[in-house]
Design goal:
Blueprint (H helix, E strand, L loop, with lengths): L11 E5 L6 H12 L2 E3 L9 H6 L1 H21 L11 E3 L5 H9 L2 H15 L7 E6 L2 H11 L9 H16 L6 E5 L9 H12 L5 E5 L3
Parallel strand pairs: 1-3, 1-4, 2-3, 4-5, 5-6
Helix pairs in contact: 3-4, 3-5, 4-5, 6-7
Length: 217
């Protein structure tokens, strides 16, 4: 399937945002629309994640290191010719690991983690476009409740607020790739085709390096 006009320049589109923002749902639909390879985060493979939600200080380091090397293996495949089709859509970018690490690790743990992260992050390709999905903690909480994943029900609104703040601080200074900022409060690309098509049109017309997509009334 040929890439729609205006989007062929983006070989790797990474979708980012806090838990509950709708990253995976959008990634699935966008990859199908573009005829692109879909690369999803595999959180269910992390043996420490459920324990992290119950005891963050006790399991943050193990959780973070597992994710770092898991995501590193996934992103590294992008640099190998023939491993993927002409385009890839992912529901994460490797840089999120450092963001979560700074939030959840102690100073000593973060120092050790940073040494590992520094050795791998510079060797891996960056996305050609990042889509940042924004939502309020109240909206994220509602979506997390609706999707009903048991271990996620322990997530507190205060943690979601810290996460939203961390993403905002990170992307305020972000310049590693073109960035489309999407207000997802009134954006439902799964159930409303017109919402999805409006985003596709905005991406095709994207001139960058940073633009905002907002369907708020």
């Amino acid at each position: 399937m040929p890439m729609p006009p205006g989007l062929a320049r983006f070989r790797h589109i990474a979708i980012e945002g806090p838990i509950g923002a709708g990253k995976s749902s959008l990634a699935r639909r966008l990859a199908a629309h573009l005829g692109a390879e879909l690369m999803l985060e595999r959180a269910d493979e992390n043996p420490y994640l459920e324990r992290f939600y119950s005891d963050a200080p006790g399991y943050a380091f193990q959780t973070q290191v597992f994710f770092l090397f898991q995501r590193m293996r996934q992103v590294r495949e992008l640099a190998q010719p023939g491993m993927f089709s002409e385009a890839v859509v992912s529901d994460f970018m490797l840089d999120k690991d450092a963001l979560f690490a700074r939030m959840n690790l102690s100073d000593e743990e973060y120092h050790l983690y940073s040494q590992m992260y520094a050795q791998v992050s510079q060797q891996l390709p960056k996305p050609d476009l990042v889509i940042w999905l924004q939502a309020t903690p109240a909206t994220l909480t509602q979506r997390i409740r609706q999707r009903g994943i048991a271990m996620e029900q322990r997530i507190e609104p205060g943690y979601l607020q810290k996460l939203c703040d961390a993403y905002a601080e990170y992307f305020q200074a972000f310049d590693a790739a073109p960035l489309m900022v999407v207000n997802s409060e009134h954006f439902n690309p799964v159930e409303r085709t017109e919402d999805f098509q409006a985003l596709v049109d905005a991406l095709a017309a994207f001139e960058g390096p940073r633009e905002v997509f907002d369907l708020s009334p």
